[in-house]
TrEMBL record:
Main location class: membrane
Protein name: Cyclic nucleotide-binding domain-containing protein
Transmembrane segments: 122-144, 164-182, 194-215
PANTHER family attached to this UniProt entry: CYCLIC NUCLEOTIDE-GATED CATION CHANNEL ALPHA-4, CYCLIC NUCLEOTIDE-GATED CATION CHANNEL SUBUNIT A
Gene source species: Eleutherodactylus coqui (Puerto Rican coqui)
Length: 502
């Protein structure tokens, strides 16, 4: 408002008490901001510093403090020289603008819709530039003379153009025409007008390039975000077109992709979170999926660390209407947890329904745990088909096995719960289980005996190596002694030959 009050002098004269109150309210806020900065901690090598003396020393030695201090210098005393109707004496308050940009940066990283905020920020910049330019246009018109030619603002003696609101709106409109290069602008007449137009056209060219670049950047970010969240459907369409896939399959693919887009379903969560540190990735995955995993009966009362590792192994899958999740007799290599949608347990004809599974239910959990005595083995015992679109979490047998190697107690507990479930289903042969346990114990005993024998052989081998090393050292020393004695004999022989020759 400071440029507007300086250029549209009627606004300054008419509302002077209001402007003075707002000015000094802003000054109070600026001073409070400086006081707050003396109590705001800072990060030093990743550690939050909260000591007030260190905070005060850090802030007072920073360039930010210099700008903040300059922005509250009492330039208002110049009112005594130039009068109360010269708000330009407070121009040093603009030095606090770095706080605005800092606020923008922090807001952009914290809100859920950063691209919308970027567009809003860009529109605000455009508005401010046009606003300042309209103020300069009106001031230039006042300097040249209102109504002197067709380019400047019309004569304010005209009642229609003498109103304050009309003055600002006309100037804003004229400035918008120039900076947007729309055209339909009266030609300039004076040298000052030519200079103003040239500068404005240069600003307009730069602004147009900046706006187009910013908007294209936002659109690119949106497209890249969509590509990172959802599969590239254009490639799928091109593939189906090249290989002339029939229309029924095309319709299924289109409907599946639309379901993902409309309902914001993700199929590659692990790839999206892969750039996060492991600790943060675990926390995000736990907050999203742990309640669902905790509903599975065999995982209830398990250690929290085990559940956190299992959460990272969950793979989301989406099934289309009428698609089979598993069929009777298939080898079970994974279990499923229903996140959303409904599944039907159907007969072999695919029509007769025995039961309907809804959100939070699970199946296939027994197939991923090797329970001895399971009469069905790892084969599926039912046909399960998706009624509509169903979102499931899949946990593979290999992933569970990798996690359980570090949690033997949890493994034993899971096997015990699995046996209880099989007993209720009358699918556990206890005799076969006892026989397999006996065989396993026998194998374990053999392995232990082999380990004992291996340790004994390793001990003997170590002794032989030590003796061999000792003999080698002794042999080396003996050879050195013999070489030394031979060299002495050769020296004595050469001396005797020299003596005989003389």
């Amino acid at each position: 408002m400071c440029p507007r009050r300086s250029c549209f002098t009627e606004m300054q004269h008419k509302y002077l008490p209001i402007w003075l109150c707002l000015d000094y309210l802003c000054d109070i806020l600026y001073i409070m901001d400086i006081i707050a900065n003396f109590h705001t901690g800072f990060l030093q090598e990743g550690i939050l510093v909260t000591d007030k003396r260190l905070i005060a020393s850090y802030y007072s030695r920073s360039s930010t403090f210099c700008w903040d201090l300059l922005s509250i210098l009492p330039t208002d005393f110049l009112y005594f020289k130039f009068g109360l109707h010269t708000p330009s004496v407070r121009v040093n308050r603009f030095l606090r603008s770095h706080r605005l940009f800092e606020s923008f940066d922090r807001t952009e990283t914290r809100i859920s819709y950063p691209n919308v905020f970027r567009i809003s920020k860009l529109m605000a910049y455009i508005f401010v530039v046009i606003h300042w330019n309209s103020c300069i246009y009106f001031a230039l018109s006042s300097y040249v003379g209102f109504g002197k030619d067709v380019w400047v603002y019309p004569n304010i003696s005209d009642p229609d153009f003498g109103r304050l609101g009309r003055q600002y709106l006309y100037s804003f409109y004229f400035s918008t025409l120039i900076l947007t290069t729309v055209g339909d602008i009266p030609p300039p007449m004076q040298e000052e007008e030519y200079i103003f137009m040239v500068v404005d056209f240069l600003i307009a060219v730069l602004g147009f390039a900046t706006i187009m670049g910013s908007i294209s950047s936002v659109v690119t970010n949106l497209n890249s975000a969509d590509k990172s969240f959802y599969p590239n459907y254009d490639q799928v369409k091109l593939y189906m077109k090249m290989y002339k896939v029939n229309k029924s399959v095309k319709k299924k693919v289109i409907a599946w992709h639309q379901h993902l887009q409309i309902n914001k379903k993700l199929t590659n969560e692990n790839q999206i979170l892969q750039n996060l540190p492991e600790k943060l990735r675990v926390e995000v995955a736990v907050s999203v999926h742990l309640p669902t995993l905790s509903k599975v009966q065999i995982f209830q009362h398990c250690e929290k660390g085990l559940l956190e590792e299992l959460v990272l192994k969950l793979k989301p899958q989406v099934y289309s209407p009428g698609e089979y999740v598993c069929k009777k007799g298939d080898i079970g290599r994974e279990m499923y947890i229903i996140k959303d949608g409904k599944l039907a347990v159907v007969a072999d004809d695919g029509i007769t329904q025995f039961a309907v599974l809804g959100e939070g239910m699970y199946f296939g959990e027994i197939s991923i745990i090797n329970i001895k005595g399971n009469t069905s083995g790892n084969r599926r015992t039912a046909n399960i088909k998706s009624i509509g679109y169903s979102d499931l979490f899949c946990l593979s047998k290999e992933d569970l096995k990798d996690v359980l190697t570090e949690y033997p107690d949890a493994k034993a507990m899971l096997e015990e719960k699995g046996r209880e479930i099989l007993l209720k289903m009358n699918k556990l042969d206890e005799n076969l289980a006892a026989e397999l346990v006996a065989k396993q114990q026998e194998v374990d005993n053999k392995v232990r005996r082999l380990e004992v024998n291996l340790e004994s052989l390793q001990t003997k081998l170590a002794r032989l190596l030590a003796e061999l090393e000792s003999n080698a050292v002794k042999m080396c020393q003996r050879i050195k002694c013999l070489e030394w004695e031979i060299s002495l004999w050769e020296e004595e022989g050469s001396k005797e030959e020299l003596h005989d020759g003389q």
